[in-house]
Every structure is written in C-alpha cells, then in structure tokens.
Amino acid sequence: MQATTVVEGFRLSPQQRRLWKLQQDTSGTAAFNSQLVLLVEGELKIEALREALEKVSARHEALRTVFRRLPGVVMPVQVVCEDASLSWEVIDLREKNGSVDELIEAE
What we know:
The chain has helices spanning 14-24, 46-59, 100-106; strands at residues 65-68, 77-80. By secondary structure, it is α+β, with helices and mostly antiparallel strands.
C-alpha cells in the first residue's frame, strides 16, 4: 500500500496559468524565476538582514507561495509554504576578481 501525499493548494489564476505554460515552452529553463542581487557598501550585519527578511516572508504569504504539480495533474496548484526560511548566498566581492557586472552574469 502506497502512502498518500496531501497537498493543500489553490488553482492558478488565468495570468499564472499563462506564465506557467510560457515557462514550460522555454525547454525547462527558469525563465520566470525572481532573483535579487544586492550590493551593500560598508558594514553589514548579515544575520540581522536574514532575520528581517525572514520576518517579512513570514508575514506575507505571497512571498512563500510556490507552484506544485501533483502526480497525474497537468496544471500545478499554488501552495503556501509554512517555512519562511530563505535560500541565499553571500558573495564577498572583495575576494573576487573582475567587475561586478561580470560576477553577476556568472552567477
């Protein structure tokens, strides 16, 4: 007997359905991912920034919403993740060679 996975989600809006279909037509590339590059000059308390961003993410469901495709279903559903932790990487440009634009393009 197989375990059943329960996913609570919402149907995509017409605009989201269109974007999903467009992304599927781009041969699997992440054409519609949102990314941010932030250049900070001066001293930065990285953990304080992370905590502040996680608090904002915890308050706003839209920042924790992902698309999940269930087995056998063509169109995904919107799922609000409970976990507000962020995926990010800190790159210290003082340790890198090259221009900022080149480094951003490489990432």
